[in-house]
Amino acid sequence: MEDISPIVSILGIGTAVPAFRMDQADVSQRLAEALREQPHSARWAKRIFRQCGVETRYTCEPNLLEPASGCRYFSSASIEGVPTTAERMATYKKESVPLGLEAARKALSDSGMTASGITHLITVSCTGQFLPGMDAALVQQLGLASTVNRLPLQFLGCAAGLKAINLSRQIVSGTPSAKVLIVCVELCTLHFQPSGDKEALFAASFFGDGASACIVGCAGAGHKGIFQLGGDYSVLMPESADEMVWEVGNYGFHLYLSPNIPRLIGRWLPAVSGHLTAGENRPELWAIHPGGRGIIDAVQDVYGLTDEQVDSSRAVLRRYGNLSSATMLFVLDDMRRRLQDRRSGLASGMAVAFGPGLTAEMTRITYLPSVVGQEQLIGDAR
């Protein structure tokens, strides 16, 4: 009897953002006011805010919308009044669960599943932590089984959302009856630093808050508009350990992003991605984690991609900023909407994200407009 491989797929996606929207031009102006005693930093901030590819972002912290004189997160003459890490973690604990719940419920609805069918829960975040964790809160408030297999992925950075998807594919490939719920929540704006240093201003220019979720399981007859998951690959790029650093400080987490990151990606990505693309035509679909405008530019240049092929990544960056681990599902959701709107047929693709290490996380994806039946394997399940 012929062995039929399961169609392991993303069966549903949900996204959510906080209520407070930050206009990039407004934030830039208020930050410049806060830096009026540091004119060089103010000029640099205006330039990077204008050039980073972001127009709007969202935050869970309403104080970030206050005038410069009343914003506790902006640069000031004294450190007194700046939120401590303990305060920021208290806000994270309060705001992360409702946002994760909203995204998870949307993903369940989109997949046509109920909470009782979930066998595994993977929670992802690098912007906060508390115990009992978000995973325990989601089990109780979503009504998941108390025996659900919980797997928190903490402090893995921007690549962690795709890492969770790859881990889920491996779980379902080994246990076809499994249904994995992934919930990513990142509250990046809680870590704005009261500093005029270039590194702090660069990080403040394009990170935003948001949550995303998805269901990974075996597709069957009737599933439509889904992404089948193929082979995956994860690698630490050489000579790059110090290019992306995220450390805990007394006043939030401190992020350092080297300006060399796009150049390193352009240098090493073709070699490492060859493990998934060797001997094949270049994929049509490209879900690139928008870690910044320069990263999208680097991947586009390496593979000679059209503007249309990278438009979902640029659109997410423009509307939401970089949401760390949650961003990849925003990109896939936008891409799926576009494919459905133009009634696309089957299309193969690649999802790629980068994180501290530097880590490159990659996955083959195939858009399936519909699944006829389990006996009919559609797409690339390598």
Please describe what this structure looks like.
With 382 residues, this protein is an alpha+beta fold. The chain has a domain at 224-370: Thiolase/Chalcone synthase (Peroxisomal Thiolase, Chain A, domain 1). It is 35% helix and 25% strand. It is built from 10 helices and 13 strands. A 9-stranded mixed sheet has the order 5-4-6-7-1-8-13-12-11, with helices on both faces. The chain has a two-stranded antiparallel ribbon with strand order 2-3. Strands 9-10 form a two-stranded antiparallel sheet. A hairpin with a 3-residue loop joins strand 12 (347-355) and strand 13 (359-370). The two termini are 20 Å apart. InterPro entries: Chalcone/stilbene_synt_C, Chalcone/stilbene_synt_N, Polyketide_synthase_type-III, Thiolase-like. It comes from Paenibacillus naphthalenovorans.
Distance between the termini: 20 Å
**Poorly predicted runs:** 375-382
CATH architecture descriptor text of the domain at 224-370: 3-Layer(aba) Sandwich
Number of strands: 13
CATH class assignment of the domain at 224-370: Alpha Beta
Number of helices: 10
Fourth-level CATH superfamily of the domain at 224-370: Thiolase/Chalcone synthase
The CATH topology label of the domain at 224-370 is Peroxisomal Thiolase, Chain A, domain 1
Which key phrases capture this entry?
382 residues, alpha+beta, Peroxisomal Thiolase, Chain A, domain 1, nine-stranded mixed sheet, two-stranded antiparallel sheet, 35% helix, globular, disordered C terminus, Chalcone/stilbene_synt_N, transferase
